[in-house]
Each structure stands twice: as structure tokens, then as C-alpha cells.
Amino acid sequence: MNDSVRFQIERYLDGGMTPREASEFLATVEQDPEALALLGRALEDQAHLFDVIRGAVPAEKRRDTTRRLQIRRLRARSKPRSGLYAVWIAGLAAAGMFTLWLAPPAWESRSRVRSPRPAPDVSVAPSVPPSEPLPEASAKRLQSVAEAPTPPPSPNVPSPPRIETPVAPRREEPPPPPPEPPLPGLAPSRNPATLTRAAVAILERVQGDCLVLDGTEKLPATSNGPLLSGQGLQCGPDSAAVVKFQDHSRVELGPATRLRECIQGPGGRQLRIDTGTLIAEVAKQKPAESFAMTTGQAEIVVIGTRFSVACAPDSTRVDVREGRVRVTRLSDGATTEVPANHSVVIAAGAPVEARPSPIDEILLVPAQGRILGTDWHPEKDAEASTGIALEAPKSHPGPLQDANCVAFTTNAEAGKTYYVWVRGKCMAKTNRIEHDAVIIDFGDSEVTEPPGPNKGLTGGLERGLFNGFMHTSGYGWVGSDSDQGRDVPCVTVRFSRPGRQTVKLYVREGPIRIDSIWISALQKSRPDDSQSGPLPPRK
Amino acid sequence: MQSPEDKRRAVMRLALEHRAQLWGFLVGLTKDPAKAEDLFQNTYLILCEKWEQYRPGTNFLAWARQVARFEFLASVDPGRRPFVTAEMEVLESAMRAVESRGGGPSSRREALRQCLDQMPEARARRVLDLRYGEGLAGDKVAEQLGLSLNALYTLLSRVRRVLQDCIERRLRIEEAGV
User: Fold this and answer.
1) Distance from first CA to last CA of chain A, Å, rounded?
2) What residue of B is the nearest CA neighbor of A41?
3) pLDDT tens sequence across A30-44
4) A158: exposed, middle or buried (C-beta count within 10 Å: 0-12, 13-18, 19+)?
5) A283-316: per-residue pLDDT in tens?
6) HSE-CB for A326 with a 13 A CA cutoff
7) Cα–Cα distance between A128 and A90 in angstroms, integer?
8) CB 3.0 to 4.6 Å from A343: which of A85, A192, A319, A451, for a disulfide?
């Protein structure tokens, strides 16, 4: 494996890879600490190799211009300025000395034009600069560094996902890949001029007044119509549209949203958004491809995730629900990675940093749970909101056993009061009042149960009893011990620490089926039984 | 307490000590030693100017690389900056991955020099001379040696592995004080 990586490193360092290959290669390296270390070592050793071997090669053979440039700098300036010069002079001199130490004289090596920079007039370099500042010629460029971050940036910042990264190859760019096969169901454009352009997506759903933007032309948008590369989409104040891409990525445009253009290139897709809001659900992208969105202030690059963008004239907000995106402020290149359940606001003057998004709604469904032991099993159920329910066919009296539960992991905020609702169904035909209870353990938390005959019988302060599913024939919401009446207050929970939480579901009285657990900061009253949670049903 | 003058000298000394890491980073980004050298020199000048921003005891390389990043970005077409940023991140991660390992830059360079002196195979030395001494691109080196490009990369990767093993061995011996 090492040999293969080393081979690719040589290719990469020689500029022998196409941008796509380089991008794929770096994506692979990034995932492998050993390969990453090999690349790091190769970079450093390469610098040493240039330094050491250069010294042994006759100057006229060398391709580099380093020393000639330094000498030119040393001789170019005619009029010394006070103050800043000394540091600069000495700095260059020290660098020159260092290079001279590495290589024999080579003043005559190949000339090369470069941007002028005033140089100090010295021929003998002091070991270290005696005093102050800097040449004014580079002031403009240096200004960009004037705000250079104070050291050091954290060395432990997690590496970002790879995106398409053109690598300035010395060789010719590869020809663009052949156009992808057309999306199913795409009708040919009525505009002959657009016939040669590839369709990048279809308009899965169009509601209200939406227009396809094609240069200066505006065409009515219709459901199932194509969106060609370069075209945009505009939704009116009461309108919305869903754009579906070939890889099943979806972008929902909200009211008053303008997607200026959608471009499909060899490196992926680029969407330019002028204003409005959208929700994107992006399928996992191939290593060499990216799915990028640009607003007036920011660029958002994503490999595969679910996130939303709200774009105003002077700011852009990105909320990430799943996965991870990279957001770059266009004005200064400041970049941050936004992980799941975090958001960032990009605006002039604001720090570019991801902050945890408020977590107000958590819906746990059977697919997210890990079944331990034999008390529970998944069961297909057309009435369940996801088509699958967790079923416990028997009661389990006595102390709770971790070996027999369904464990869910989720993120939640610490110290926030969450109201807990469980959607379930009593499966018993007779004596239903004794076959309709579950217990939920919230881990490191403080649980409050409302007054009731069974309060405190769960065996732990971090647990809540959910009893009374017998009241409905189908699925219904239960918030606490509601055998005596359905509309009693629900269990509340406050997690002791932020972030990842483990929630365990135990059966007390079976047979019973559980459809979902809704942990909400907002849902204080019992939800309607037809409601399946804060999100649309996932059937 | 360290005087400002001492601190400034210390910063400049650090910049030169870490030349290989900074320059290597820039070569990785530009794939062009000459261009990387120009960028390094600019970076060095800026480090000389901004020495007061460096807090002794913190990660000098991280700070210096930030400056090098700005220099590199300034040399790139603005439209490409968001894309090269990702590449910079990976290269920085790669260099960070080896920073904590033993053997400072100068001892590593010295070990490399000794390993090169011992290198017996003429062809291996020839390929290094062409590639790193004369600064020829891979295709030109391959042409001169009558190799395919893939064969050249294979040869280079093997030679560099041998060198790396040799360097590590020497550094271990040095650390052990043998």
C-alpha cells in the first residue's frame, strides 16, 4: 500500500496529475493518517533534497532563480530609507547567507522577471538584522497580511472533506468528461440554442409563480421540466419549487428565492443564489466532485449532507442538519467547517465560526435505534410513520436490564427543558390497561415526572414512565403515566451535558409497539394522534 | 525577560530554521520550486515585519504557514481561491502530521546529506540530480533517462523511501547518542 501511495505522491508533487486525479488523491490521503504522514514527510524531504543536491550541481544547469533574485534585490535599491529598512535588509541578507551556504555562487543562472521589490544595498550580510522595518514596495501586499492571525491556529482542527481542487498542473488540462446521460423524463428544450446544453436537473415540483432564468430570458417553469446547465430559477413571493438532480440530490427553493444559475462542470455542480431561502439534501458526492453553492457573501461546499441556506442581501446563514459543509466568506477567504447541528452566519465584520444550532426538536424513530437483547424486535407496520415499529411482545417486570432495551443516540442541548412524547400502540386485545407501558432512560439527565399513582416507580431519577397507550386503538401519543386520563402533563428532561446523549427504551407492559419518541423543547401539550412528529411523515 | 530585539532575532532564526517546512509546503502547492522560492522569500520578509505578532512558546510553524498561505493565495487567481484552499488544508494536515516527530529540520537535512553521500547506485543519484539538482520536471527527467513517466515515479518513490529509511535510522542513532 505504501509503495502505491509513494508513487502517487511523486506524481502529485511533480504536477503529473490532472486536477481531478489530484483531488481524488488528496481525498484518499486525508482519510489515511499513514498516507498523510508520508505526504508530509515527502514535502519536507523534497525541500531538503532541493537544498542539498542543488549545492552539488553546476549553477548553469539549475532551473531555479533563487540566488540570482536575491543578489538582484541586494543591488537594486539605490536610496536607503531609514527605519524599516534595516530589518528588511538584514532579513534578506540572512536568507541570502543561508542560501549561499547551501549552494555555491551562481549569479549567472537563468534570468526571470518578477515583480520588483526594493532591495537593501548591502554586500555583506550581518548574521541577524540589526534593527527595523520594511520596504514600502511590498506594502500593499503586506497589508493583506497585516491582519495575519496571531499564532497559533489549533493544530487539531479536523480535516475538511475533499473538494475539487485544481492543482495548477504543468500539463494540459484533461478534456471535459463526456456528457452524462440525460435524466429520465426530460423533455427537450423548446429553445434550440439550449439543445446542446446538458440538463443538470429536473423541476420535480413547481408551485405558484416560478420562472426559469436563461440569460436575459424568463420562461415559465413547469413541474418535470428540465433545468439546463447555466439556467436559473426564480420563485415568486408565494411560490416554491423542488429541483432534483441526477444523483437524487434535492434542493427546495422557498418563496421569494432566486437561484441565478446552476452550472454542471467536470468538478461538480455550482449553484449561485441571489436571495431567499432553500433547503438542500445532497447525496454523497464522488471524491472528485463537489456540490457548491455561492451567495453574495459565501461559498458553501458540501460532499453529502442536509442543510439549509437563508440568503439576504448582506448576509447568508447556513444551518447543517447532517454531514458537514465548508463555508467560505468570499470577501476575505475566511473559511469554517460547519458540522451537523451547527450553523454559521456570513456577513461583513462578523466572525466566521460555526456555532451549535439550537436543538429544539428530536424525533427518534425505530431505524435509529439499536436493539439489545430479546425484548424488542422491529416489525413492519403500515400504520407506523416510518413503516416500521418496535414491538415488545411481552411484559418485562422487575429491574430494568440494559441487556434488553433499544438504545438511541442523539444530540441535545444541556440545561434545556425538553418535553417528551412517545407514540405507541397497545397490542393487547383484553385487559389493555396492563399491557401499555414503557420506560425511557435518558442517561445523564434530570427527569421530572408529573404527579401520578406510579410516580417514582421507574427505579431511577433519570427515567420516565410512559403509560396509557390503551386509550387509542391505533397509535397515539403518551407523555407520562396517563392511565387515569390522557391529557396529563408530560415528562420533562434536562440533559446534564451538551452533545451526544443516549436514550434507552425499555418495555414494562407488553405487547406494545412504539413508533417514535419525540423530545421537544416546544411541544408542551399532547400532539394530535394523527401527527407523527415535528417533521413530515417519512413514509 | 526577553528584549524586543532578542525576540525579533528569535523569530527570524525560527523562520530560517523552518525554511524546509515552509518551502516544502509552498512547493507542494505550486509544484514549481522557483515560484515556491519567490513565495518563500516574500513570506520571510513578512515574518520579519510581523515578528511582534509571534508569541514565544506558541507554534511558530502554524503562524508562519498562515503567512505563507496568504502569500500563495495572493498569487492565485481570485476565482480559484476557494478551490485551492481545500488543497492547502490537506497539505497543512500532512505537514502537521510529521511536525511532532523527532529530528529537527537541520538534523534531518544533515542526515540526508550523509545518506546521499553513501548512495551507491549511480542511476538513483542521477535521477535525484536531474530532478532536484537541475530542477527538471518529471517528463524531462524521464526523457533524459529513457524511462517512461510511470517508471520514473516508481524509481523516485523507491529512492526516496531508501533515503527516508536511512535518515530515520541516522536520526535514531543520533538521538540514542551512539
Assistant:
1) 44
2) B98
3) 888 888 888 988 888
4) exposed
5) 877 766 778 888 888 888 876 677 888 888 888 8
6) 23
7) 6
8) A319
What are A226's strand-pairing partners? A202
Which cell goes with B158?
523507491
Cβ atoms of A538 and A516 closer than 8 Å: no
Interface test with B, best of A8, A165, A337 (most B CBs within 10 A): A165
Yes or no: say if A446 and A493 are a contact pair by the CB < 8 Å rule.
yes
Contact call for residues A118 and A84 (beta carbons, < 8 A): no
Cell 436575459 -> residue:
A216
Beta bridge partners of A219: A212
**Smallest Cα distance from A11 to chain B, Å:** 6
Please indicate whether, in this complex, the C-beta atoms of A50 and B156 are within 8 angstroms of each other.
no
pTM exceeds 0.80: no
Tell me whether residue B96 is exposed, middle or buried, using C-beta atoms within 10 angstroms of its C-beta: 0 to 12, 13 to 18, 19 or more. buried
A164 min Cα distance to partner chain B (Å): 6
Residue A440 near residue A517, CB atoms below 8 Å: yes
**Partner residue facing B66 (CB), from A128, A135, A149:** A149
The answer to whether ipTM exceeds 0.95 is no
Report the C-alpha gap between B31 and A124 in whole angstroms. 32
Specify which residues B84 forms β-bridges with: none
Q: Which residues pair with A106 in a beta bridge?
A: none
Cβ atoms of A88 and A130 closer than 8 Å: no
Which of A336, A349, A348 minimizes the C-alpha distance to A153?
A336
